[in-house]
């Protein structure tokens, strides 16, 4: 499920290893991330395939 970074409002793909598709750790600051059903808006490779 996509995850939204609440500070940047950007929506990324989540990977099983606990990072976004563009390799940002979700586990480091879990309070900054929420699950969303909205479309991924991150343009970086790994999130936007
Ligand atoms: Zn991303």
Distance between the termini: 15 Å
Summarize the helix and strand pattern as letters: EEE
Gyration radius from CA atoms, angstroms: 9 Å
- Spans with pLDDT under 50 lasting ≥5 residues? none
How many E strands? 3
Structure in words:
With about 50 residues, the protein is mostly beta strands. The protein has one domain (about 1-45). The chain has strands at about 5, 10, 35. It has a three-stranded antiparallel sheet, with no helix packed on it. The protein is globular, with a radius of gyration of 9 Å. Zinc ion binds near residues 22, 42 and 44.
How do you describe this structure in short?
Residues 7-16 have a biased composition (Basic and acidic residues). The chain has strands spanning 3-5, 11-12, 33-35.
């Amino acid at each position: 499920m996509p995850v939204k970074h609440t500070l940047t409002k950007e929506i990324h793909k989540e990977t099983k290893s606990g990072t976004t598709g563009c390799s940002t750790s979700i586990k480091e600051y879990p309070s900054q991330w929420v699950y969303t059903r909205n479309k991924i808006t991150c343009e970086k490779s790994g999130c936007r395939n």
